[in-house]
Amino acid sequence: MTIHGKRGDPHMVRRLTMRRITSVLAVLGLPLVGACDNELVNPPTPVDPLFARYVSIGNSITAGFQAGGINDALQLDAYPVLLAQMMDTPFNVPLLRFPGCPAPYTNIFTNTRIGGTGPTFCAARTLPIPTFINNVAVPGAESIDPTNNLDASSSANALTTLLLGGRTQLEAAAAAKPTFVSVWIGNNDVLGSALSGTDQGVTPTATFAANFDAMMTALDGMGVQGGILLGVVKVTNTPNLSPGVAYFGAKAQGALPPTFTVDNSCAPAVLGGVGESTLVPFAYGFGVLLAQASQGVSVTLNCATDPPVLSGAEITNIVTAIAGYNQTVQAAATARGWAFWDPNVVLDSVKAAGDIPLFPNPAAPTAPFGQWFSSDGVHPSSQAHQVVAQRAWDAIVAEYGITP
Amino acid sequence: MAVTAAILAAPGTLVAQGFQVNEHGTCVMGRAGVATPKPCGDGSAVFYNPAGVAGMTGITTSIGVTGIYAYGSFTDDYTSDETGLENSLVPVPHFYATYGITPQLTAGFGFFVPYGLGTKWPVTFEGRFNGYDNDLRSMYFQPTLAYKLHDLVSVGAGFDFVLGSVELNQRLDFSEQLAPPPAPAGTTLGQLGIPFHTDFANVNLKASGATGIAGNFGLLITPGEGVSIGFRYLTRSKLDYQGDAVFDPVETGIVLPAGNPFGVPAGTSLDLVIAGLGLFDDGALLADQGGDASITMPDQVSVGVAVSPTDAVTFLAEWQWVHWSLFNELELVFDNAGTKLIEENYQDTNGFRMGVEWIADPRFTVRGGYLYHEGAAPPETVTPLLPEGSRNEFTGGLGVRLNDRLHADVAYQYIHQNKRRGRVREPDAGTAPSVELNSGLYKFNAHLFGLTLTATF
After folding, report:
1. What pLDDT, on a 0 to 100 scale, did the predictor assign at position A19?
2. Domain tally for chain B?
3. Rounded distance, CA A42 to CA A54, Å?
């Protein structure tokens, strides 16, 4: 558009100049149109707000321990990581560098670990150190440990500091301000005794209840909005503990060396033995007796008198304790309206289906205890972790009416 | 053990691009900082365009202050915790004097603080390891000469003597320190389990008396009645700081359980372990010590135009470019703790300003304006030290002629910084800063209040 003015009119000159300047100002103003590009907070966007900040509490299973060791790969296979993926929520794990701390077995029969490392080898954490830790579980933890790792009865170990820096699990959890937690604690209150072939040292049910209640009270005070409690595993179902009769059968089939004698006490009841009602820990049957027999030393497994063998009465006491624990756990879940999942239902069915080997298979050193257990015969395999995660998720969905 | 990322960093500020301050005259402040094409008559042209003092007759002196009240916060993505700044009202003074030696030649002097200000966060803020109480001031003392070459053209130049000071307070993170043997070389204590952001020391870095020089050059052209065009260039100034670093232990509160990597009995305080390392002993790594750093105050270029369609009304517009890419890294050298290089990667910035001035009557002049600044910090270096970003600012002002010799100006400016994502942690040693470390949102706004009194003789 052309603007015409009277030639020589100074006021017109100033008006024209003004229009030009107005145009200049308009051009200068263009960047302002794009000047309001505010950025945003980027909070977690889980499938449900309940899962905004998820923290898992527990022991070696929850931490991702498998095959007698733990490293970053196994930690990322653990069920809490899978659960977090289902929740679609951020989840930081205190990852341990390869080969681990300690490194997992490559062959439990030869006591060989990844990289040829020993049982005391410990690699440090990976970098970067996460700002918050979501999986605060520590291998070896018993029911007291989530709230107290300094007590004489605590099971604090090298991983307690390596994973949490001296904090208790709940102290580390509090830093992440959890909205949702999973708790799977108590297995070690019986496991150590069972693997040693005794019921001595099992945490009394009243002590377990006190420990568990203290932990739950602390979680309540943390403002946790929901959670899932997992029942204590019936550790007598783990394939690390083989029925005495399994050794009796192995001997009969010639699977044991001539120097390894299996006493008739390990025979089935119909043959006058107690082999069906006793359990032989791997560390005793293989770690001690078979190891000696393989070197030509004559050994005998006696299921009635050998102290490392779990007797029927000891098994009963352990199972009774576990049932007592689970009453506490389930009651705590019910009282809070939290989800509860009893892994023993699945474990019993798997065992009934014959999917838990009664006797380790040396011919399959990478899976001597079957597909559901790692090669230490105690800790779930990665495949089992997937099942645990799915079942736990199903329980959560059912309890909270979540629409995945 | 080596002191790593935590000891470092540059002072932070919070009012214009980077750590620039542009409010050095209340008259100019009221019109959004536009003065290059048509400086105010209070002598502030010494800073805004030295050519603008040419032709000023007699003696003009002005003194004033800009009060800056900045407020803002950081909201953590994950926890949703919002931590607010605790800045108090910061006064930024200015002083100018001009003397018309001849109708063409004018001498002037100015004192102003074009780079500075600070950030103060609570000591509990998660970004305390970058710095929680920081202050930087670069004071410019500028004698100036301006000459009117022609009725249409004036030039001016000033020599700046720059005096700088800086203070930084921050916490040191034990998890970032290197573990003592037998841990493998290069292993940090965080890799042995020490929780991220475990306070174990406080460091106060303070340096004053740094000096530098700069030049401020201006050109003013009046091509026609009611139209003026201005150009101004302020050179960079490198300041070398030599100061003191005072380290004080901070209790971690951590009690070690059994099996800890330090080999001490369960129940032993981590603080006892740290004390046993002798880190704070005379001559040790964290003993009180000297430290050196250099910071370059960047060049500024301004070009603007002013148009007065009537004798009473003036419209002004200006573009400003600041050479912030000079601030690409910061090297801190400590007597005992070694050298730390911090990447800042700043980008040159553009600012666009528009103002209007209306002489309502012989006593009162009303001013208003709007300006937009780009942020200097790239997305990966938005930290508690300098959580800056692009800004929209609005100004208003009033000039009052008190009598034949005295004039007063008051002004208000509101700064709204676009919300900016940033970080509260340093990258791991040997790695570059990344937007992947950004974990929350910085908000920043400020109210500025200006008052300048001008006397003419």
Report:
1. 46
2. 1
3. 17
